[in-house]
Amino acid sequence: MKKTVGAVVAVLLLVAAAGWWQGRQEDNRPRQTTQAAPMVAVAVPELTGLARQGADVFEGNCAGCHGANGAGNEGYGPPLVHPIYRPNHHADGSFFVAVQNGVRAHHWTFGDMPPVAGLSQSDVSKIVTYIRELQRRNGVF
Ligand code: HEC
Questions:
Q1: Which of 14, 28, 117, 130 gets the most CB atoms within 10 Å of its CB?
Q2: What is the pLDDT of residues 35-77, one digit of tens each?
Q3: 104, 107, 59: which is closest to 83 by C-alpha?
Q4: How far lies 21's CA from each of 16, 31, 120, in Å?
Q5: Does the beta carbon of 113 sit less than 6 angstroms from any atom of ligand 1?
Q6: Looking at ligand 1, which residue's alpha carbon is closest to its atom 27?
Q7: Residue 141: which of 81, 98, 97 has the closest Cα?
Q8: C-alpha distances out from residue 130 to 91, 105, 118, 140, Å
Q9: Closest C-alpha residue for ligand 1 atom 37
Q10: Confidence category of residue 103, pLDDT binned at 50, 70, 90
Q11: Which band of pLDDT confidence, cut at 50, 70 and 90, is reported for residue 4?
Q12: Once rounded to an integer, what is the mean pLDDT over residues 87-101?
C-alpha cells in the first residue's frame, strides 16, 4: 500500500515537473519571428539616406520583435513608434544601452529584451535616425 502511494506521488511529481519544464520552454522560446501583427499604424515618410540604412539594420535585427517600421509585433515586442519612446522619455542613449545590455521588462509584458550582438555604434545610430524620422512623421514628437 505504502509503495503504491509512493509510486503515485512520484508520477504526480513527474507530471508536474514536465508541465513546469514545458511552461519554461514556452517562456524562453525565441521571440524573433517573421510573423507580423502590428500594434500601431505607422506611416512611413520619405526617409533620409542614413535612416534608410537604419531601416535595413532594423529590419534584420529588431523588426522580429518591434515589428516592421517599429509598429510593434503582438506577442513579441512593443512598438517603438510610440509616445513612451519619444526623445524626452527615451533619449537616443537608451537605444545604445538596450542593444548592448538588453532591457529588463518594465513598460510592457513581453518579457526581457536580450542584448543584440554584432551591431556597431554606427549601426545603432542609424537605427535611431530611422526611428526618430518615423516618430516625427507619426506625431510622436
Ligand atoms: C527578442 C525580442 C527583441 C528584439 C530582437 C529587440 N527588442 Fe527591443 N525590446 C524588446 C522588448 C520586449 C522591450 C520592452 C521591455 C519593456 O519595457 O517591457 C524592448 C525595448 C526596447 C527599447 C526601450 C529601452 C528602454 O530603455 O526601455 C529600445 C530602445 C529597443 N528595445 C530597441 C531595440 C533595437 C534597436 C533592437 C534591434 C537592434 C531591438 N530592440 C531588438 C524586445 C526586443
A1: 130
A2: 789 999 999 999 999 999 999 999 999 999 999 999 999 999 9
A3: 107
A4: 9, 18, 36
A5: yes
A6: 103
A7: 81
A8: 14, 23, 19, 14
A9: 62
A10: very high
A11: confident
A12: 98
